[in-house]
Amino acid sequence: MTPRITLAVAARVLTQLRRDHRTLAMLLVLPCLLITLLWWMYDATGGTLFDRVGPALLAMFPFIVMFLVTSVTTLRERSSGTLERLLAMPMGKLDFLLGYALAFGVVAAVQSVLAVSIAVGLLGLEVQGPVWLLTLVAVADAVLGTALGLFVSAFARTEFQAVQFMPALVIPQILLCGLFVPRDLLPDVLSAVSDVLPLSYAVNAMQTLTRTSATGDVWRDLAVVAGFAVTMLCLGAATLRRRTP
C-alpha cells in the first residue's frame, strides 16, 4: 500500500461524487429526510416512540445508504473497465479499496454530522452521553456499510445483482439488531446470530448513549464495528477482480 496512491484514489472518487449531484443528494440528504419522516410519524401519535427507535435509525440509515451506493459504484468501475486500467498502473488492490473507503468515509462523516445534528438539535432526540461520540458511532457504522459494499461488489456481475445482496446481508441485520425486539428477548439461536452481526453493536452503542452517560460499553461496541469494517476491507482486497467476466 502506498499512501500517495491511496490519497490520489480518494481524491478521484470525491471529485466524481462532487459532480454527481444525485448520488451526493442520496448520500447526504436522504438519511436526514428519512429520520425526519419517521419523527413526523411518531410525533403525530403523541408518544415518545421516536426516542426509542431514533438511535437505531441513526445507525441503520447511514449503513444502508453507504452499502448501496458503494457496492453499485465499485461494480460500475469494474464493469466499465476503469478498475482494470487503474490496476494496470503501479497501484495495488488495497490502495484502490482504501482510497474508496477514505473518500466515502469523508462523505460518511458529513452525512453523520448532518443526521445527528437534525435528530438531536431539531427533532429533540434525548441523548445522555456525548453527542460527538454519538456522531463517531454513526460515522463508524457508515464506514462499515462502505466496507461491506466494497466486499460484496466482488461477487456481483451487474448492478442489479449488487442490490440483491441487500436482502441477504443487510435486512437480517436490521431484523436482529434490537430495533423490533430487544436482543435479550430473541430465541437463543437468533440471539447467537445477532451477536455476530456488526449492526447489532452499532445500534447497541447508540441506544446506550441515549440511556446513560457511561461510555465504557460504547467504546467496546465501537471497536467491534471498526474491527468488522477493517476485516471487510481486507477480504475485499483479497477477492477484488479486475473486471466483470
Automatic annotation (TrEMBL):
Belongs to the ABC-2 integral membrane protein family. It comes from the Bacteria. The keyword Membrane applies. One of its GO terms (biological process) is response to antibiotic. It comes from Nocardioides ginsengisegetis. GO terms for molecular function: ABC-type transporter activity. PROSITE patterns: ABC_TM2. It is a multi-pass membrane protein. One of its GO terms (cellular component) is ATP-binding cassette (ABC) transporter complex. Keywords: Antibiotic resistance, Cell membrane, Membrane, Transmembrane, Transmembrane helix, Transport. Residues 18-243 form the ABC transmembrane type-2 domain. The chain crosses the membrane at residues 24-42, 54-75, 96-125, 131-155, 162-181, 222-240. This is Transport permease protein. Pfam families: ABC2_membrane. It is found in: Cell membrane.
